[in-house]
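Standup notes, protein team

Yesterday: finished cleaning the Salmonella enterica subsp. enterica serovar Agona set.
Today: AIDA autotransporter-like protein ShdA structure.
Blockers: none.

Input for AIDA autotransporter-like protein ShdA:
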Amino acid sequence: DVTDNATLEMNTGGDFANNIGGTGSVVKSGDETLTLSGANSYTGGTTISGGTLVASNVEALGTGDVTDNATLELNTGGDFDNAISGSGQVVKSGDKTLTLSGINSYTGGTTISGGTLVASNVDALGSGDVTDNATLELNTGGDFDNAIGGTGSVVKSGDKTLTLSGANSYTGGTTISGGTLVASNVEALGSGDVTDNATLELNTGGDFANNIGGTGSVVKSGDKTLTLSGTNSYTGGTTISGGTLVANNVEALGTGDVTNNATLELNTGGDFDNAISGSGQVVKSGDKTLTLSGANSYSGATTISGGTLIATHVNALGTGAIDNRASLLLDASGQFTVTDLTTESGGNTEIGAGSTLQATTLTQKSDSTLTINLDSNTADPVIHAASQVSLAGTLDITGVGDVLDSDPASTDDLDTFTLIASDKTIAGDFEKLTVAGMDADLADFITVDGRIDDTGKQYELTTALTWYADRDDAVTDAHGTFNLTNADGSFAVNTVLENVDATLDPASATGWDGTSLIKQGAGTLILNAENTYTGGTTISGGTLVATNVDALGSGDVTDDATLELNTGGTFDNAISGSGQVV
């Protein structure tokens, strides 16, 4: 053994196994590599002025401070609590786990070539860069701003909050097993995957492309805009406490709930079923189609700035105002309830079949489109606004044929349907009405019209025979032709057809006289009423069925197809033509 009560200078290499005690110091000089393997107890400190000093025992350097101006290699395990200073570097080698617990100030950097190096003090690794080619475990709190590179991994353990603020390049991934790991630089976690089993806080901006898994949660803090672009599977939920969190992958926020108290921007497509709560706003951006299928309760606004947003749950859009600058589809069987819905110029808001909307205000701006899909189960009104309705742009109606769903279809199905109801007078009107989705057989002789009613508080859709279009001031021109092109199709007219020549618009393009009926196409037209039109009947295709002796009015009949008289009484209309009578 060596009792050192002054200074022991070792200018040599090799393995020095003697135990060193005493109050003195040890100096390693020269450029060789020297290993101290004893359990030493000297108290005067250690100075490394040249070469490499290897400690293969956690007690090899006694209990004093270490001044490292060359290379200190720690090839051992245990708790090394000596304070390390100087301009030199520290190397952790071997496969054991070593803890540095001192407040160290060395500046030459740290290399981890094997095993695990645990820093239980935020200053344990000095101020230099860290080259991590094995495992760096940070069991501490505070701000760790050393740059970390290498092929190794980083583990955050313990219950404290640790901030990584460096631009790190390590590739081995990050594991958060306890406490909170704060990344205040978008590159703080290197380029590897993150296994988050506690809390990952991202207080930074930029594009964070690392994949995040684990059972832990993710918190977005600070006022910057951060993009998550990875395919993430973490299950602990996401909290947005500040700034903007952009998800440009539908799986970017894992599978847990989202508490949004700032701004969540969804720049992606697919089905996003995470439940969203909080006071923050949601923005749909980009050109893709995104479906919100969760039962969401967030109270902030929803903005659709690009692409298409589809809501397949009645609570998918929360309870706040909606500003639609692109395309929005409400497609759930039930009532959506929001505060304000505004469709900006160029935007299209679509109400799916079976869906209704309860809003405080409804605003359709110029060059916007409101599309309403009808079916046989649609309840009216489709939209109810408790405060104000302002209309402009285009109203596009689809599925009118689904409303006329009896077999056979008949005039009994024609009715007035309330699309929009307001508790106050409706301001403005739609500039254009388009109708799609009606059977071609019906579209020929059914007129569909939209208008604000006499109270000024309801916008109604009316379906009626084109025969009476001019009388009723419909948008289409009146005519008396019933063209049923489908041989298996039929339509029953149960209302009285009377002369309307006195109400025809002189500007009408049809040239109809207002008193005559023409049956065209291979389908079947059924006249059930006691009709009074006087201009005659022409059957040029299909079958015309009269179930009333006066069904064909008082004029002559030109039959070039099939006339079926399914009635009794005296039929005194003159019949001519090449067709048959049955």
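Follow-up from PR in the comments: The two ends are 130 Å apart (CA to CA).
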